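Standup notes, structure subgroup. Blocker cleared on the EPU input:
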Amino acid sequence: MSALDTIVVKGGTPLSGTVSTGGAKNAALPLLFATLLADGEYCFRNVPRLRDIDSTALLLEHLGTGIEWDGDALRVHAAECDHQDAPYDIVRKMRASILCLGPLLARYGRARVSLPGGCAIGSRPINLHIEAFEQMGADVVIENGYVVARAERLRGARLVFEDATVGGTENVMLAATLARGTTVIENAAKEPEIIDLADCLVKMGARIDGAGSSVITIEGVDQLRPCDHRVIPDRIEAGTLLIAGAITGGDVRVNHCIPGHIDALTQRMAECGFRIDTGSDWVRVLPCDGWRAHDISTAPYPGFPTDLQAQYMALMTLADGTAVITERIFENRFMHVQELVRMGANITPKTQVAIVRGRPGVLNGAQVMATDLRASASLVLAGLAAKGETIVSRIYHLDRGYERLEQKLQRLGARTERRPGEPQAA
Ligand code: EPU
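Run returned:
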């Protein structure tokens, strides 16, 4: 796979069949950083093979950890770090690298982690992480582009997040496991990935209560131990595949997922007129000739996920009626709008709101450019339903979070193909 690969989609085929989701990227990343808390052998199963996982492995290796793939399992040999520095070159590739700050600080009393810098979907500051560590007794300064944090031993504190933050909640949970005393996080993020992290930390010997609710209590312990853990299925991949079926008027069953994790999407799709069947670990969308537009507003879990906003917007371009899509989590997550417009969609973007005037059959193929991970997915989905050929370039964004999406779609009958290199300008 090259950074310049493109995906070519020939639209117009209703997808049909069964496909499985892999492990959740956003669950696997914090789990891997948890290995900085205790030395020894870990085995994580159901880990997706993605660029973000590779970036995490690179950072952990830089910190002295051994990493080895064994099928879909990732074996981690954690050893004591002889330094606690996370350099810019690795952190800039993946913002979630900031999750090494909490574990390093808690365990070694020191961490020096590059600030991640700008991002395509919003400014994404880490002020809430830093304020929380300061309240736990750390001395934090920004020096030469790095966050430098020190604390002899973190102490438990009562923390109230001003805004729910997934990464902030994870970083504090990781750190609080080894702090002296009890930490209470109020207005904690409630995402399924938080529960998965808590489950793994508890196996490691941590004392955590309330994960999945808005108040999480962590009683610090002196030492943790390694464990084996299976990563939860990726709810965003499941939702993306379900929309792929829906947007082509197809019949697609998505296996190995947790239907409750995508309730916000399936409920909204049902309101649009799709018939959705669910079992204990699968979701199926049935063929549908036409669907109605419905508004969405993104929100923290269990609200409509920002990570499915772009894909849902692609679906709404072909709906009957107008959908108002409000993005409340990130301030700049409409970069896919102008690319969808190049494919014939009628969308008016305003600040944080996009008005999508849907019309069945409106999309036609074009050469489009991906700007971030979920935007890339929405362009591939639009291509599946467009007349003619769509060429999506800068697919390295897609590869950060989807494991060979084009191959999964091919198995459902899609005419998708990965081509090496950028398309030549005409
Ligand atoms: N925020 C602050 N200050 C902070 C932290 C967050 O202002 O210190 C703001 C952010 O700028 C944003 C909002 O709070 O506006 C929510 O950010 P959050 O911290 O919840 O997001 P994150 O941890 O950076 C994770 C996922 C994202 C997902 C968001 C929201 C991972 C690795 N990333 O990001 O996933 O969109 O939660 O659910 O878990 C993706 O997979 O495509 C992706 C972007």
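Discussed briefly. The radius of gyration is 22 Å.
Next: hand off to the docking folks.
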